[in-house]
Structure formats: structure tokens, C-alpha cells
Design brief:
The complex is a heterodimer of chains A (833) and B (300).
Chain A lengths: L4 E5 L33 H5 L15 E7 L5 E7 L1 H5 L3 E6 H5 L25 E2 L5 E7 L2 H8 L3 E6 L6 H5 L4 E4 L5 H6 L2 E5 L2 E3 L11 E6 L6 E5 L4 H12 L6 E5 L13 H13 L5 E4 L2 H7 L5 E11 L5 E11 L10 H4 L12 E9 L14 H19 L3 H8 L8 E2 L5 E2 L4 H12 L1 H13 L3 E15 L4 H4 L9 E8 L5 E5 L8 H13 L6 E3 L3 E2 L19 H25 L6 E6 L2 E6 L5 E3 H9 L15 E7 L15 E15 L6 E11 L6 H20 L16 H4 L11 E6 L18 H14 L13 H12 L7 E5 L5
Parallel strand pairs in A: 1-31, 2-14, 12-13, 16-17, 22-23, 30-31
Antiparallel strand pairs in A: 2-6, 3-5, 3-7, 4-6, 8-17, 9-15, 9-32, 10-15, 11-12, 11-14, 13-24, 15-16, 18-19, 20-29, 21-22, 21-28, 25-26, 26-27, 29-30
Helix pairs in contact in A: 7-8, 11-21, 16-17, 19-21
Chain B lengths: L6 E4 L3 H11 L3 E4 L5 H6 L7 E4 L9 E4 L2 E5 L4 H5 L3 H4 L1 H9 L3 H6 L2 H7 L5 H5 L5 E7 L2 E6 H4 E3 L2 E2 L6 E8 L5 E9 L8 E9 L4 E10 L6 E2 L1 H5 L4 E2 L2 H14 L10 H23 L8 E3 L3
Classes of the chains: A alpha+beta (833), B alpha+beta (300).
The structure holds flavin-adenine dinucleotide.
Chain lengths: 833, 300
């Protein structure tokens, strides 16, 4: 994929803010490695077949589990008979919903009030609420026997009427979360008021190469449960599993090694983890493995949130500056809220998007429907809102005759306003959206395309230029959960890093993260190499997550674009503690003052030496002193362990629950994409003619990894915009349960991507880095914008985030028959401003 | 995802394959590339009791040209055709072979299996119908040659008897001044097209069309020969009016159904456009130009 690369460094990003980066140790001694585009350490292992995935693990006596699933979206279970399955050769036991309902507590519900009464059990007991919901499980000696026997489980259902749209669900009212303030006055002052009808952000998912995999053993001797799995938020899963299964949290031991992608969607695998543990217990403590199939994954793991935007009113002044937005949003979370109540507030991290609008009132609702439960999905909850805001910008721009780039320039938050406080109390750390836009425009050749567009229009061609500005807010404050449920017992954000010298002086890092391809081993090694002035090759980073490493808090996992901030700061803090210990030891052994010492690599490996003299001690000798050769060490050094653990804390407060006000997240990486798209007049197929991504994630710890993440997120977003859709029919049948129907994006669909990079260092983080990788679904915004631009003269309003040749064909027909009349209404007033 | 239990038999010769089919009965199936059969088996939508593997029969995967005919063995892979000189001689063959699914499927899937499967969206069933093709089948009573238009009867249904095996496909090499194109629109690589069209034109001179074959794929239970569309071109000048008439006739001939690939109305629209464009490319190729064409993908 060839592409142009532009880089532009913004040395000083912003004027001082109220909330500066607050200490986790001084910055590293050098920055030789951080910022370098070094190749990933994990690459060789992964491309030479040495990755360790859960399905590679085999245990003595290991059993296999197969789920029996509902073919109905909504039905009462009237009978379930496992007797034939139990008699099948090789079957060890079965589990039914009714049986385990007696053994477990329903999962914790995060939502308030009525939502607390939702009884979410790992297997459906009386009633199924989405197609693919597990109702029973068969455990057998082989996977084949489990599959054969699962076919013999007899289940009778009495179908119930399904609810498959958010609007239908709303009829009987669900969770409600009105946001802030009133806008009456601003609307009165407006020069223009634009009313926009229903907009809809579709349901799509992530399609990690590796589906969910769980290997569980519930040891009857210790009562401990051991999981090898690819859940990407193990601390969250443990907190759900321990009360449900009635064990202490320290009895849950979780491990992951390599993970074949996640994008958030694996966070909600805990119901299956519960069943696997119960199956192991019933089978006498034998290990039980579950390897999710693709159809199971598509039907019943998790989808991304679907959101409908209703009754939008936008007040603008006479120059097109948005004064206020008022809208009602309905989020469809599928059959169970699970992680979802968080999604109901996470969008508020980006309430005004990249814009200066001061008055925003969103009446937020979340409803349950008879569809697969949703879960975090790359760009989680923010992308839906950002898409809405971008649609508002473009539709208002079109309605008022202001070009898309100009509309953004007038409304963007300015660089000199950073750090910027949003109307709901969030603080954007840094960024320069206008410069990003200028770069993106330059990359695609915006001005030339404008001319070509005008010429092409004369020939009757539909060419559109689009911009998508988006934010990837990272390092979330869990305190935002309180806005949903004031009793939710969590807040803040933390991560752990451990850096130690092993007995022979090897530098070993345990990460409190669960990487799935983000290159954590590499960036962790870069940070430690700088802290100790050694090379990344000398830093051994343990892949994966393991509770036994003790590198976790309750926030530990890989989600919410944060490792570059939270994980690396924790590791840096641990490395600096180790550095201090090494320095104290070396000062004693070399009989020197600490300030006369320096760190580096000598003839005998990493060492601490006395500046300007031939005296040095290497790590082997230092580790030896502490671990196996410590007689004669002065008591003042006995606290040295060379095993340093550091907890990163983000400087967060609990939000003001009543006003729904407070800082919900720490950093704001930004993406501005620009594209030119042509809609073929004869096939209605949208074709991307040129595409550019400009990314600013503050200081890039490893520019190569950053660019890789940008490409991945762009591909994911283009797939979402043009191909991928979790479509249900009116009976709640998922129509896209296979890849042939869901059509995840392939290389054949991806245009050449041009890439531009800017750095606006975050004032709130250790080395100015911001979390990134989610990408904010920028291509969905961008492609919709370009399509809108292409088809606006034909009277089409792009009101859905998913667009295909077929849907555009129907949209143009709809426009021809006046179907968009009233969808956008503009009221021009004589305004006081 | 595991298939239901089955027995596996490797046939060393055609005779043995036919004999095994007879002995193992109705529940036995031939397996070639497995690219249609195995996905169905692993989802347990197909449950053959026995599989008879024809991949090890010698001579079944040859591509030969003789006496103006191209003979393609049943187990020739899509990728073999993509890379063979047959694709240069008959561009439609290359257009078709190079766009089927993705590299893995093309390396494995066979032309014989594709025709025997008779998927309404299968590319070969459409492309080969634009040429003069016939299917050679072997059974207990020896061989028979069935014209392709008679071979596929309905969706997923051919004239093959249970104990018959496709051994080869014969394609008449088009005359000089003939050119063809197979165009298909697909959403992403590993899926069947939403609509496809194959056109083979034989030209009288630079402008006059002597003969035309126009075939529509994915818009009916089988590939559809759009004879009215052909008539719109036969013996006529290749000018815009006639080409448009052919495209309109093609749209009228289509019998599409709505599914995840597209609505019926949209497929009807699309197939006409593909016909129009295929005519343009076929004509240029008939005039000796080398024009790249084939499958198009969403977004690009
Ligand atoms: C992801 C994916 C995408 C695809 N996309 C496309 C596409 O875009 N276009 C397209 O045309 N195809 C597509 N295919 C299908 C592909 O072309 C298959 O190769 C083809 O349909 C079947 O050929 P096969 O050799 O794999 O047959 P098999 O799967 O082995 O067999 C298919 C059927 O034919 C029978 N059979 C096979 N060979 C013979 C024979 N010699 N005699 C008698 N019966 C026989 C079998 O018994 C079986 O019933 C796709 C397949 C996949 C998996």
C-alpha cells in the first residue's frame, strides 16, 4: 500500500493548563529509543509461527465444550432434554441454564434502577433474548464428540414477539440519561436554526482473526480457577466472575499470551468464561476448552453499538458558527447491557467533538432489543457521537452554502485554546485541528479536486470531497460510570508495571496490559532502554498478561486507547525505581557518590560506572549482590529488591454526578481524514479516488507502530462505511452470520492511503504521548461526508453511516420522489448576533 | 466446526471413482477442491456419508488445445487457468479465473467442481456460456458430452447422474475478430459477486457486430442467456443506441432476488450496466486491443 508520508512536528503544543502531568517519577535520563521507528520485537516470534495462542495450549485430560444456542431472537424455553446427548459416546457431562442458575449469582449490572433488576446468567434458563444465545452446553472428550452430541440436545421454544429496532424498544421506555443544560436562550439568538430528521449509526463489529478462546480449569483441591484465555480486560472479567461463581478474586488466575486481535470485542467474553469454569467443576476439575467458531462469534460474542439520532436542532450564527445543538439519542445495546451502561456516558468524553460549540443538550437513552449484546468496539461509543457531530457540520454547511473545510475551520477549537475545557468539564489536552485539516487537504490535493469536481459535475458525474475530523480520547476516568449510576463503586484509572533484575542480571519487564497486536513489548522495551540507557534488545518483556506476575489493578486491561500513557508510564516509573536501587547499590560497591555514576552498556553488558574512571559494575554483579551473595551488605540497603513495581495513577476527580460534569478522560489524540469519492452514475458504487489520514497522537513513542495502527483503523473504518453491517431481519435473525454475508473488508477494497503525521505533545503525560489506535472511525465520517457532497445536488441526505451501491441507488430514487423533503429544514432569522 | 462423520476414499482412476460412487450409493459425494463442499459440511448443512477424492486421478488436471478446442480437465484449479496461456487466447477465461474469491480459494477450487456445484452466482457457469462449451461426463456406461446450456438445469442442479463424474470441459476457441469479457461486481474478495455479465462479440469489421453472446450471472436460478440483448447487437453497428438497447434487454431478462448481496432492483440495474461495459471491452478486444478487465470490488 504505497502512500505519501508527511511529518510535521509541533514542538510546543499549548500554553500551560491547570492540570499538568503530575509526577510518576522524573522523565527518563535519555530519549534515545523513545520516538524511534524501531521494528517490533514481537514480529519475529509471530511471523515464524512461534506465537502462543490459547488454542495451542493442551492440558492433560482436557475436555471440549460446545454450546447449544437459540435459533430464536425471543422465545420462552418450554422444554430442554439433554438425556440423549449425555448418553453419546465421549460425553462427560452437560449443563443447562436451569441447572447453573442454582449454582451462580447473576452478573453484576452497572446500570441504575430498573437495570439492576436485569438477571444476566451465563446460560439462558427460562427465556432466550437473542439469536445465538447459549441455552445449554455439552462437555466431551473431543471437540467432535461435543459437536455431535450438541445436536442431540432437544430444546422446545415458544416464540415471543421480537423487538429489533431502537425506536420500537423505546415504546416501553428504558434507561435514561439526559445530559446537561438548557439551550433556549441560544436558540432565540440564532441567525439560522437547522432541524435534521432521523440519523442512524449502524451496527458493525470487529472481526479479529482469532475468535474468543477459553481454557478453564477449576481445581477441586484448591478451589482456584485457572484461565488461559484471550479476554482483553481480565481485571474487569475477574470482578464479574468472582461474585457470580462465589469465589475470592485471588482464586481466579488468568493468563493470556498472544492474542489474534481484539478491538474491544473480547472484553465481554466473561459469560462464556463462567460456563467453562462450571463445566470444569462438573467434570471433576478437568480442563475445559472452548474455541468459538466464526458463526458463534458473529451471532453471540458482541457487536458495536447502534445509535439513532432524533429531532436534532442546531442553532448557528450568521457566519455558520454553531451556537447550540439539541438532540435525542437512542443507543441500542442488544439483549443485555453488560459493559454497556458505560457506553451511555463514554461518548460524553467528546461531547462537542472537535468544535467550540458551548451549548449541547443530548437526551440520551439506551434500550435493549432482541439482538446480540453490544460491547466495546474500536472507537467505542465516541465514534457514534462524533459521526453525528460531523453529520451536523456537513448538513448545516450544505444547508447554509458554507464549504465543508470552511465550516470546520470556523468551528474548530483553536490551538491556542488548548488545554480546552468542554461544556461538560472534560479537558482536551492539546491539538491543532486546523493544521491537521490543512495537511489532509494538501495530501489529497483538495483545491485541485474542487476544480475537477466542478468540471465533472458538468459532465454529470457525482464526485464528492469529504472531511472527517475525529477524536480518539484515551485513558478514561472510570468515575464516569457514576454519571449513570451514582452508586457504581469505581473511578479513576491505574496501571501497573514491573521491572526487575533477575538473578543473573537480566532486565525483565512484566506489563499490566493485554496486547493484541499493538506492539507493547517493543514500546515497553524502548521506555526501559531509555530509563537505564541500554538497548531495547537487552530488555526482556514478558508477553501477555498473567495474574501471577502481580502486575495488575482492577483497571488492568487493554482498552480505551491508553497504553502509551498508562502502561508505559507505569513501566517507566518501575524502571526509574530500579535505576535508583541500582544506583544506590553501585555507589556502595564502587565507593562512589551516586551523582558521579552513569548508566550504560559496557564490555560486560549493561552496567553502572563512575563517570570518567575505569570503575564499573555490571548488572550481573549487582543482581548477584542482592540475590545470592548478600553477606556483608549494609542494613541501609536491605530494602533493595531489584524487583520494582510501580502503579500509575491518572490525576482524576470523581465527576459531579448531578451536573454530569467533570473530566472523563486524560488525552485526546485526533485524526483528520480527507477523501474524494465518486459515486458511479450507472452502478451507484462509491469508489474512493484518493484518501489521506492525518494523525496526531502527541509524542509518538514508536512512529512505525503508530502508522500501522492508523492503517488498521482506517481499514476498519472503510469496511464499516462501505461493507460491514450486522443486519437483522424483522424476526431478529442475524442475516450476516458468516463472512460471505458480513463481508469484512479485504485488501481488494482498500485504497492506497496517504499518511500525514503531526505531534502536539500532551501536557498531561510523561513524555507527551497520547493513547491511540482506535482511530475514532474517521473513515465512516469522511466517506459519509464525501457521499453527502457528491449527492447533495441530487437531493440526497446521507442519513446512515453504512452506504453501499444498493443503498445509494435507493437513496437517489428516494430523492427523486421527494422522500427527503423535510429531512433538513432551515429557518433563517433576523438575529441579534 | 467439524463435519458430521464420513468415510474417505481416494480414487486412483476415473473408473474407480465411478465404481465407488455406485458402491457407496446416494450418500457418497465426489470431492474436488472442496471449496463449496467443505464449508457446507463444516456447518453441517451437507452430510455426505462418504467422500470420493478425485484429486489424485492422473490426467484430470490438464489444459490442452487441439483442433480449435480448448480442453480443461475437471480438476484444473481456478489459479491454473488464471496463469495459463488459455487465458491469453480467450480473455474471458482469464477475467473469470482471476476474480473468483481469493488466492486460497483459487488455488484449491476447480472448474469441474464449480460447474457441478451449479451455484447461481458461480462465475464459470456464466463465463463459459458466452463461449461454445460442453461438459464431458463419465459414468458406468462410458462418456457423454453435454452442451453447457443443457448441463445446468436449475440452481444447484445439473444433469449429472449420481454415478457420473465431470472429467473435462471443452471450449471452442472463438474465431478471429472475436473478443469477450466477463465482468463481475463483488463486495469483497471472498464472496460471490452481486451480479456478473459475460459478453462475447464476433465482429464483421470495426463497427459491425456479426454475432453476440450475452450471459447474465447471479440474477436467476441459473446463468441467463439474454437472447433479446444479443439480437440488439447481431448484425448491427456497435453504437450507443444499440448498446443501450442491449443493456435494457439484459435488465428485462434478469430475474434477480433480494438477498444480502443486494436488492432485486439494484441487481437488475447493475447487471445491465455490466453488460454495457462488457460489450465495450469485448469490442475493443475483438479489435485486437489488450484491455484489463474482470472483477470490481466495493470501494475501489
Ligand atoms: C470464500 C469463497 C468464495 C467464493 N467465491 C466465489 C466466486 O466469487 N465465484 C465463484 O465462481 N466461485 C466462488 N467460490 C466457489 C469456488 O469457486 C469453488 O471452487 C467451486 O464452487 C467448487 O469447486 P470445488 O472444486 O471446490 O468443488 P467441491 O467443493 O469439491 O465440490 C462441489 C460440488 O461439486 C461436486 N463435484 C466436484 N467435482 C466434481 C466432478 N469432477 N464431477 C462431479 N461432481 C463434482 C461435489 O460432489 C460437490 O457436490 C467461492 C468459494 C469460497 C469458499
Amino acid at each position: 500500500m504505497a502512500g505519501k508520508v508527511v511529518a510535521m512536528s509541533k514542538k510546543k503544543a499549548s500554553r500551560g493548563g491547570s492540570q499538568r502531568f503530575s509526577g510518576n517519577g522524573a522523565a527518563a535520563a535519555t530519549t534515545k529509543w523513545v520516538g524511534q521507528p524501531i521494528r517490533r520485537k514481537e514480529e519475529n516470534r509471530l511471523v515464524s509461527g512461534k506465537g502462543i495462542f490459547v488454542d495451542d495450549e493442551k492440558m492433560p485430560g482436557m475436555l471440549h465444550i460446545r454450546f447449544v444456542r437459540s435459533s430464536y431472537a425471543h422465545a420462552k424455553i418450554t422444554r430442554i432434554d439433554v438425556s440423549k446427548a449425555e448418553k453419546f459416546p465421549g460425553v462427560v457431562c452437560t449443563l443447562t441454564g436451569a441447572e447453573i442458575k442454582r449454582q451462580v449469582q447473576p452478573f453484576i449490572e452497572i446500570g441504575p434502577g430498573g437495570a439492576q433488576k436485569i438477571a444476566d446468567y451465563p446460560l439462558a434458563a427460562d427465556k432466550v433474548v437473542f439469536q445465538g444465545e447459549p441455552v445449554a452446553a455439552v462437555v466431551a472428550e473431543t471437540r467432535l464428540a461435543a459437536e455431535d452430541a450438541a445436536e442431540l440436545v432437544e430444546v422446545d421454544y415458544r416464540p415471543l414477539p421480537p423487538v429489533v429496532t431502537a425506536e420500537d424498544a423505546l415504546k416501553d421506555e428504558s434507561i435514561l440519561h439526559p445530559a446537561m443544560g438548557t439551550n433556549q436562550k441560544t436558540f432565540k439568538q440564532a441567525a439560522h436554526v437547522v432541524r435534521i430528521g432521523r440519523l442512524h449509526f449502524h451496527r458493525f463489529s470487529s472481526t479479529p482473526l482469532e475468535c474468543n478462546v477459553i481454557l478453564a480449569t477449576w481445581d477441586p483441591r484448591s478451589g482456584d480457577i485457572e484461565y488461559h484465555c484471550n479476554n482483553t480486560f481480565p481485571s474487569f472479567a475477574s470482578q464479574f466472575l468472582a461474585p457470580a461463581l462465589g469465589v475470592r478474586i485471588d482464586q481466579i488466575h488468568m493468563k493470556s499470551f498472544d492474542i489474534g486481535g481484539g478491538f474491544g470485542i473480547k472484553i465481554t467474553s466473561y459469560p462464556y468464561m463462567a460456563v467453562c469454569a462450571l463445566a470444569s467443576r462438573k467434570a471433576g476439575g478437568r480442563a475445559v476448552k472452548w474455541v468459538e467458531t466464526r458463526i458463534e462469534h458473529m451471532q453471540a460474542s458482541a457487536h458495536g453499538n447502534e445509535r439513532t439520532f432524533l429531532d436534532t436542532r442546531v442553532a448557528l450564527d450568521k457566519t455558520g458558527v454553531i451556537l447550540a445543538i439539541d438532540s435525542k439519542h437512542v443507543d441500542d445495546c442488544g439483549a443485555f447491557p453488560r459493559y454497556e451502561p458505560l457506553g451511555c456516558v463514554i461518548w460524553a468524553q467528546v461531547l462537542p467533538a472537535t468544535y467550540r460549540v458551548k451549548n449541547v443538550r443530548i437526551d440520551m437513552h439506551q434500550v435493549v432489543t432482541n439482538k446480540c449484546p453490544v460491547g466495546p468496539n474500536r472507537g467505542y461509543s465516541r465514534m457514534q457521537h462524533l459521526w453525528f457531530m460531523e453529520r451536523v457540520i456537513d448538513i448545516c454547511g450544505q444547508a447554509l452554502g458554507i464549504p465543508a473545510d470552511e465550516m470546520r475551520r470556523r468551528n474548530y477549537i483553536r490551538k491556542n485554546e488548548m488545554p480546552y475545557k468542554t461544556p461538560n468539564g472534560c479537558v482536551y489536552d492539546s491539538g491543532d485541528y486546523a493544521s491537521m485539516l490543512a495537511m489532509a487537504k494538501k495530501l489529497v490535493g483538495w483545491d485541485e479536486w474542487k476544480k475537477k469536481q466542478a468540471a465533472a459535475r458538468k459532465e454529470g458525474r457525482w464526485i464528492g470531497l469529504g472531511i472527517g475530523s475525529t477524536l480518539d480520547s484515551g485513558t478514561n476516568n472510570f468515575g464516569q460510570a457514576r454519571i449513570i449510576n451514582p452508586d457504581a463503586p469505581f473511578s479513576g484509572q491505574s496501571k501497573v508495571g514491573i521491572v526487575k533484575l533477575d538473578i543473573y542480571g537480566e532486565v525483565v519487564v512484566s506489563m499490566g496490559s493485554v496486547p493484541q497486536g499493538q506492539g507493547h513489548e517493543t514500546t515497553a522495551a524502548q521506555v526501559v532502554a531509555d530509563a537505564l540507557n541500554i538497548t531495547p534488545a537487552l530488555v526482556n518483556v514478558r508477553p501477555g498478561f498473567d495474574t501471577a506476575h502481580n502486575a495488575y489493578t482492577g483497571h488492568t486491561g487493554t482498552y480505551a486507547s491508553q497504553f502509551a500513557v498508562t502502561g508505559l508510564t507505569a513501566i517507566h516509573g518501575a524502571a526509574m525505581k530500579l535505576r535508583k536501587e541500582l544506583s544506590r547499590l553501585a555507589a556502595w560497591k564502587l565507593q562512589a557518590k551516586e551523582q558521579d555514576l552513569e548508566f550504560g552498556v559496557g564490555g560486560q553488558g549493561p552496567e553502572v560506572r563512575v563517570k570518567g574512571r575505569q570503575k564499573a559494575i555490571n548488572y550481573w554483579a549487582l543482581a548477584n549482590l542482592v540475590n545470592v551473595n548478600n553477606a556483608g551488605m549494609p542494613e541501609s540497603l536491605w530494602d533493595i529488591t531489584l524487583n520494582c513495581r510501580h502503579v500509575f495513577h491518572a490525576n482524576f476527580q470523581i465527576p459531579d454526578v448531578k451536573r454530569k460534569y467533570g473530566n472523563l478522560t486524560l488525552t485526546y489524540a485526533a485524526q483528520v481524514h480527507a477523501a474524494v469519492v465518486e459515486v458511479d452514475r450507472e452502478t451507484f458504487q462509491p469508489k474512493i479516488l484518493t484518501y489521506a489520514c492525518v494523525d496526531d497522537c502527541g509524542k509518538a513513542v514508536n512512529p512505525l507502530i503508530v502508522e500501522g495502527q492508523v492503517h488498521g483503523a482506517a481499514a476498519h473504518g472503510i469496511g464499516a462505511a462501505l461493507l460491514e453491517d450486522c443486519a437483522y431481519d424483522a424476526d431478529g435473525n442475524l442475516l450476516t452470520a458468516t463472512f460471505s454475508d458480513y463481508t469484512p473488508i479485504t485488501a481488494m477494497n482498500i485504497p492506497d492511503l496517504m499518511y500525514g503525521h503531526m505531534e502536539s505533545p500532551s501536557p498531561f503525560t510523561l513524555n507527551g504521548a497520547k493513547g491511540m489506535g482506535e482511530g475514532g472511525a474517521a473513515p465512516v465520517h469522511t466517506i459519509c461526508a464525501a457521499l453527502q457532497d457528491a449527492l447533495y445536488p441530487s437531493g440526497v441526505i446521507i442519513d446512515d453511516s453504512h452506504n453501499t451501491g444498493d443503498s445509494l441507488f435507493r437513496a437517489v430514487q428516494k430523492a427523486e420522489s421527494g422522500g427527503y423533503a423535510g429531512m433538513v429544514r432551515v429557518e433563517h432569522r433576523r438575529a441579534s448576533r | 466446526m467439524y463435519a458430521a462423520p464420513f468415510s474417505y476414499h481416494r480414487a486412483a482412476s476415473l473408473q474407480e471413482a465411478v465404481k465407488l460412487l455406485q458402491e457407496l450409493g446416494e450418500e457418497a459425494r465426489v470431492i474436488a477442491g472442496g471449496q463449496s463442499l467443505i464449508p457446507l459440511m463444516k456447518m453441517r448443512m451437507a452430510r455426505p456419508a462418504a467422500l470420493i477424492d478425485i484429486n489424485f486421478i492422473s490426467g484430470l488436471s490438464d489444459i490442452q488445445t487441439s483442433k480449435g478446442e480448448l480442453r480443461i480437465g475437471a480438476t484444473v484449479r481456478h489459479a491454473d487457468l488464471e496463469n495459463s496461456s488459455a487465458g491469453t487466447t480467450i480473455p474471458i477465461v482469464h477475467d473469470c479465473a482471476a476474480g473468483i474469491a481469493d488466492v486460497q480459494v483459487r488455488n484449491q477450487g476447480t472448474i469441474g467442481g464449480s460447474l457441478a456445484e451449479a451455484d447461481p452466482s458461480g462465475d464459470w457457469g456464466t463465463a463459459l456460456l458466452a463461449l461454445e462449451s460442453s461438459v464431458i461426463c463419465a459414468g458406468p456406461d462410458g462418456q457423454r458430452t453435454v452442451p453447457l446450456e443443457d448441463f445446468i438445469k436449475d440452481a444447484y442442479t445439473t444433469v449429472l447422474a449420481h454415478n457420473e463424474v465431470v472429467t473435462a470441459i471443452q471450449v471452442k476457441i472463438p474465431p478471429k475478430h472475436s473478443g469477450g469479457a466477463h465482468l463481475a461486481f463483488k463486495r469483497s474478495a471472498p464472496v460471490y459477486p452481486t451480479a456478473s455479465a459475460s459478453v462475447q462479440l464476433t465482429m464483421e469489421d470495426h463497427h459491425m457486430c456479426k454475432d453476440a453472446r450475452i450471459v447474465l450471472g447471479c440474477v436467476g436460478l441459473t446463468a441467463i442467456r439474454a437472447k433479446e440483448a444479443e439480437k440488439a447487437l447481431q448484425g448491427k453497428a456497435l453504437e450507443e443506441k444499440n448498446v443501450r438497447a442491449a443493456a435494457d434487454a439484459a435488465r428485462a431478462a434478469a430475474e434477480p432476488q433480494s438477498d444480502m448481496r443486494g436488492s432485486a432492483d439494484y441487481k437488475r440495474l447493475l447487471v445491465g450496466t455490466l453488460v454495457k461495459r462488457a460489450i465495450g471491452i469485448a469490442a475493443r478486444r475483438a479489435r485486437g486491443e489488450s484491455v484489463p478487465a474482470g472483477h470490481e470490488y466495493a470501494g475501489r
